[in-house]
Amino acid sequence: MTNNQTEAAGPKFYDVQEVADMFKMSRMTVYRAIGSGELRAVRIRGRWLVPARVIEALVDAVTIGDHTDTLPLTDKTGGR
Asked: Residue 45 pLDDT more than 70?
């Protein structure tokens, strides 16, 4: 896979600031969602990273048919 193909595929993970920017919320709100288990993330050397597939699953759940008012920010595989 070339570097251009990797870029076209998109990132595998988003940092807290990127997630906050995506959803137009504060970083603190994202940290709280991670801490409460609403948003799955992995911590690497003190830095929280959210897998892109978690964000994709969240967006898909809302846009493909699950139009609930309150939707947890976790995917259905559970766990962190």
From this structure: yes
